[in-house]
Amino acid sequence: PADTELGFDVNPTGTKRAIEMHLRASGNSYTTLRIPFMMENLMRERDMAGLPANGVVDYGAEGTVAYYISSGDMGLLAAAAFSDPEGWNGREVNMASDALTYKEVAEVLSRVSGIDIPYRVAPWSEMRGPFVPNFQFFETLSREDYDIDELRAEFPQIQTLEQYLISQNFGEKMRVLVEGAQ
């Protein structure tokens, strides 16, 4: 079922969700920071190496939005929560600093690297493994389910995916991988 409070934890046991519900009911102070896709995943060499040939594959309906945040931006939000526990008490944040369709992700990767990164929509029949429910869940979300505009107003330094990739020299790393594979 589409429950935006579940975030990425859509496994049948719902452990993260159970913890959130317990904290709410406990009367204790709490802050919930829910994590989307990590920008760092796009920097893994094994994933980068397959991009020119395989491209960005959308395992959902075309137009599904993917939500991203970097670990540095997550740390910024967590530090803010720890430094002001009263102000963050009870706050539940679906963390994301960018929201892009997979087609837009392919366009950003191509633009930053100067290498044509193709985009394609794959049928569910091609998807295997434990992350199928996660991709299906993300199809149900909308941009309104994430606090991107609010977070940008409060933390203007959080990075878009493109800014992050540039800061991490994604383009140069992709070019080195492509040249090394030839």
Give the strand line-up of the largest sheet.
2-4-6
End-to-end C-alpha gap: 46 Å
Gross morphology is globular
The beta-strand count equals 7
Cα-based radius of gyration, to the nearest Å: 18 Å
Overall residue-averaged pLDDT value: 83
Tell me the major beta sheet.
3 strands, mixed
Count of alpha/pi helices? 9
Low-confidence stretches: 6-12
Could you estimate the helical fraction of the residues in percent?
40-55%
Decide which structural class fits the backbone: alpha/beta
Could you give the order of the helices and strands? HEEHEEHHEEHEHHHH
Strand content: 5-15%
Verbal overview:
The chain is α/β, with parallel strands linked by helices and 182 residues long. The protein has nine helices and seven strands, in the order αββαββααββαβαααα. The protein has helices spanning 15-26, 45-54, 71-83, 85-88, 102-113, 132-139, 148-154, 161-167, 170-181; strands spanning 32-34, 37-38, 56-58, 65-69, 92-94, 98-101, 119-121. A three-stranded mixed beta sheet has the order 2-4-6. Strands 1-5 form a two-stranded parallel ribbon. Helix 5 runs parallel beside helix 8. The longest helix has 13 residues, at 71-83. 26% of the residues are buried. Residues 6-12 have low confidence and may be disordered.
